[in-house]
Design a protein that fits this description.
Number of strands: 9
CATH topology of the largest domain: Rossmann fold
CATH class of the largest domain: Alpha Beta
Helix content: 25-40%
Strand content: 15-25%
Number of helices: 9
Oligomer: single chain
Number of domains: 2
Shape: globular
Bound molecules: zinc ion
Length: about 280
């Protein structure tokens, strides 16, 4: 084995990441650490250079890229409670499906970057609450933004619908709410199919999914407490069961949206129930 050199940490505030994250008004926020000072451009973001013909040109400094990443991060709308969540601190030891989900999240990031984000399928995390589905989806977009500068957003669909409903009264159009999400490169739709799913709600969702489906360039990550199939035995007690297991995802969102989602995203099933029963 090669011997590893131990890297000394110079800045204890950011552990040399050069940015610090915090929860501001319920959203995750990042800003440059006080240790971040660019010597190449003295903080201007631009470098004046002479090419071989002696002509001066201005090019963007590397730190401009860093500032852009922080800006994208702050526009992503990641809920504040996920401020310190990342793939490295996801606890995958409760069930083997969690380990699998973690591996697939890492693979997704790798493949996304290899394909430069074109034609990549997203992921749909399915399973009971409390297994860290949102943790994984959030961690993926955090990494895509901060390491790779990809434009990503997070939306809690249930909250968005509530905002739209509220917005109607304030004369804000549905489009103004929806367009930033529909057009973003990578979108996390959290808690899909939560709530009653009225005809109106499903129309909004259909618009969301269809628009992204028709654009090869968009990648969608989804979390849902609903599954694609009912577990053995649940089919019979469909009416009596009280959990989400009463309905399949397809029953909640309809066959058209469901089939598109299945084309857009690879399924990642998470379980944990068996472990809790032991
Ligand atoms: Zn620092
Ligand atoms: Zn610079």
């Amino acid at each position: 084995m090669k011997s590893k050199t131990v890297n000394l940490i110079n800045c204890s505030t950011c552990r040399d990441q050069q940015y610090v994250v915090s929860n501001q008004k319920g959203k995750v926020h990042a800003e440059a650490c006080k240790c971040f000072a660019c010597e190449s451009c003295q903080g201007t973001g631009r470098i004046l250079e002479e090419d071989s013909d002696g002509i001066s040109r201005i090019r963007e400094c590397q730190c401009a890229d860093f500032s852009k990443k922080l800006k994208l991060f702050n526009q992503a709308g990641i809920p504040g409670k996920f401020v310190h969540e990342g793939l490295d601190n996801y606890e995958a030891n409760r069930h083997r499906t969690q380990k699998d989900a973690l591996t697939r999240s890492r693979t997704f990031i790798k493949e996304f970057n290899q394909m430069k984000g074109h034609y990549s399928q997203g992921l749909i995390f399915m399973g009971d609450p409390g297994l860290g589905k949102t943790h994984l989806a959030v961690s993926i977009i955090k990494e895509l933004i901060l390491k790779h500068g990809v434009e990503c957003k997070f939306v809690d669909f249930f909250e968005l619908l509530r905002d739209i409903r509220h917005g109607y009264g304030e004369d804000i159009s549905e489009g103004e709410f929806i367009n930033p999400y529909v057009g973003v490169k990578v979108l996390v739709i959290d808690e899909l199919a939560k709530g009653r799913n009225t005809d109106w709600e499903l129309t909004v969702l259909d618009h969301f999914i269809s628009t992204r489906y028709n654009d090869d360039d968009k990648v969608t990550l989804v979390t849902t407490n609903f599954k694609d199939k009912l577990e053995v035995g649940q089919e019979d007690n469909k009416k009596s069961a009280l959990s989400n297991a009463r309905y399949t995802l397809e029953e909640k969102i309809g066959p058209r949206i469901f089939s598109r989602l299945m084309e857009m995203c690879k399924k990642v099933h998470l379980q944990g129930k068996d472990f809790r029963q032991v």
